[in-house]
Write a structure and sequence with these properties.
Blueprint (H helix, E strand, L loop, with lengths): L1 H20 L12 E4 L4 E3 L7 E7 L6 H18 L7 E7 L7 H9 L6 E4 L2 H10 L24 E4 L5 E5 L5 H17 L12
Parallel strand pairs: 3-4, 4-5
Antiparallel strand pairs: 1-2, 1-5, 3-6, 6-7
Keywords: Copper, Disulfide bond, Metal-binding
Pfam families: SCO1-SenC
Protein name: Thioredoxin domain-containing protein
């Protein structure tokens, strides 16, 4: 009985967090965007629907933070899938903040070093700036860069968990371990399933 009440308390707290993220007057996280995947196909916010999506913003020239967070992302992908009977219940997405240097070829090689299932997205400077604005991501990439010119990029360091309807659920930060992050994600997925809502488990396009 005690375990049941502890579970219900945690579930209700998760529901409260989700509802607060949709609250009136609060800045919305997520929204319409248009980018390209690594095959040159258009990828919009509609492509995030159907599964839970795990979205990270970064860049391939990042010296340490992005590699550390992508190592964590890879562990989370494997943990969530292993505890979901091998089903692909979550879509991992990496959106570059540095479109001038992060071509599809560069992104593909970089992301494959961490996990083959991470979907890489890029676009024009304005498209990337717009999606960063939609997700409240700090964006400092300079515009009109000359070929070979070196520069620094600063960006927010969060994973954004989006539900199968495309709504923001929760942020996962640097303080979260792969284990704690996986539990947060799996708890939300479990709540979704118990509510009888549809969840697509077919493989995502890469």
């Amino acid at each position: 009985m005690i375990v049941y009440f502890q579970y219900e308390k945690a579930r209700l707290e998760r529901e409260r967090i989700v509802e607060m993220s949709k609250g009136v007057g609060k800045p919305r996280v997520g929204g319409p965007f248009v980018l390209k995947d690594l095959n040159g196909e258009t990828f919009t916010e509609e492509n995030l629907k159907g599964k839970y999506s795990f979205v990270y913003f970064g860049f391939t020239h990042c010296p340490d933070i992005c590699p550390d967070e992508l190592d964590k992302m890879a562990e989370i992908i494997d943990e969530v899938r292993a505890r979901s009977n091998g089903q692909e219940v979550m879509r991992p997405v990496f959106i570059t903040c540095d479109p001038a240097r992060d071509s599809p070829e560069v992104l593909r090689g970089y992301l494959n070093e961490f996990h083959k299932d991470i979907i890489g997205l890029t676009g024009t400077y304005e498209q990337v700036k717009d999606v960063c604005r939609q997700y409240r991501v700090y964006f400092s990439t300079p515009q009109n860069i000359k070929p070979g010119e070196d520069y620094l990029v600063d960006h927010s360091i969060y994973f954004y968990l989006m539900d199968p309807e495309g709504d923001f659920v929760e942020c996962i930060g640097r303080q979260d371990t792969p284990q704690t992050a996986s539990k947060v994600i799996l708890d939300h997925i479990g709540d979704w399933k118990r509510a009888g809502k549809p969840l697509d488990v077919t493989p995502s396009r890469k």
